[in-house]
Amino acid sequence: MQQLIQDIITLLKTKPPHFFQFKKIRGLTTGFYKTNHIELDYRKDIVQTIIHECIHVLLPEYSETKTIQTEKAVLKEISNYQVAEMLEIVSKKIKYTEKHQSYLKRS
Q1: How do the pLDDT tens digits run along the chain, 107 residues long?
Q2: Where are the domains of the chain?
Q3: If you write DSSP's letter for every residue of the chain in order, what string do you get?
Q4: What's domain 2-106's architecture?
C-alpha cells in the first residue's frame, strides 16, 4: 500500500496545475476524473476524493467497488505527513489554476 501512496504523490507532483480544478458538484459525488483533469468539490472531503480519483488515474482497470476498497485501505495506512504533502501539492496547483483561469477558458 505504501507504494501506491508514493505513486499517488508522484502523480500529484507530475501533473500540470490545471489537472486539478475546483467545481461545485451536485449530488453525492465529491469529484470526477476526466481524461485531462480531476474536478474536486471543495465543500466535501478533499483528501478522500484526491486519493479516490488518483486511484482511477493510476489503476483505470479497477471497478468502482475495487477503487473504493483500495481508497479505504490507503486511508488506513497513509501518514499525517503524506496527507499534508498531498494537500500542499494540490493546493498550490489549484491556487495557480484559479489565478490563471483565462488559460482554462482558452483551452
Answers
A1: 999 999 999 999 999 888 887 777 776 666 667 778 788 777 778 899 899 989 999 999 999 999 999 999 999 999 999 999 999 999 998 888 888 775 555 44
A2: 2-106
A3: -HHHHHHHHHHHHHS-GGGEEE----SS--EEEETTEEEE-TTS-HHHHHHHHHHHHH-TTS-HHHHHHHHHHHHHH--HHHHHHHHHHHHHHHHHHHHTHHHHHH-
A4: 2-Layer Sandwich (3.30)
Q: How far apart are CA 69 and CA 91, in angstroms?
A: 25
Handedness of CA 73, 89, 93, 26 (dihedral sign): positive
Instruction: Output the nine-digit C-alpha cell for 13.
Output: 507532483
Please answer whether residues 55 and 70 qualify as being in contact, where contact means their C-beta atoms are separated by less than 8 angstroms: yes
